[in-house]
Amino acid sequence: MKGSLWAWIFHRITAILLVVLVAIHFGIMHFVDPTAVITFADSQVRLQSALYMLVDVGLLVLGLYHGLNGIRNVVLDYWPRAGKAVGWILTLVGIVAVGYGSLALKAFLTQ
After folding, report:
1. pLDDT in tens, 2-30
2. What pLDDT, in 10s, does the model give residues 44-93?
């Protein structure tokens, strides 16, 4: 029960943080210069900034946690006994996805 409580709390915290980060991302990408065409080169220049990288990494990690925890909750609603197995599988999926997403972000820094 204790782990489920923390998962519930972190689900709410990540929701709030995601709303803030999405608002920042949306504001920068669509309102600073709404006529700009977004290219790989422009994205590469933007991601040289620590703030952009922080927002993108935050969206990656928080979004994955929030989404995978949501999947975990749905699975546990239907199959409560699958708790530990589902938790470990989704944790592994999350680690792999964060690693893959980090490699994608790193590609913008090394060009």
Report:
1. 668 888 899 999 999 999 999 998 888 88
2. 888 888 888 899 999 999 999 999 999 999 998 899 888 889 989 999 99
- Long-range (24+ apart) CB contacts under 8 A made by 104-109 are 105/47, 105/53, 105/56, 105/57, 105/60, 108/40, 108/43, 108/44, 108/47, 109/44, 109/47, 109/48
Q: Does the CA dihedral 32-33-39-44 come out positive or negative?
A: negative
> Which CATH number does the domain housing residue 23 bear?
1.20.1300.10
Sequence-separated (6 or more) residues with CB below 8 Å from residue 32? none
Retrieve residue 5's tokens.
């409580």
Domain count, the chain: 1
Comparing C-alpha atoms, which of 62, 63, 66, 71 is closest to residue 89? 71
Whole-angstrom CA distances from 49 to 15, 43, 55, 98 are: 25, 10, 10, 20
